Amino acid sequence: MSDGQWWFCLKHMRVEPDRGCPDKDRMGPYASEQEAAGALQRAADRNKAWDEADLDDD
User: What is the pTM of this model?
Assistant: First the structure.
């Protein structure tokens, strides 16, 4: 079992424990499996917020 670190694998589109695909193919580490599962949504939300902030600067 993992020592508390979880990753989201971009190659397989799934959550993995510490032992898994190479880090270059993963997002993380995260403290929990649930946090890792939300990695793509969190990244999308941040990207949207940054894009909106860029538009506000124009």
Answer: 0.79
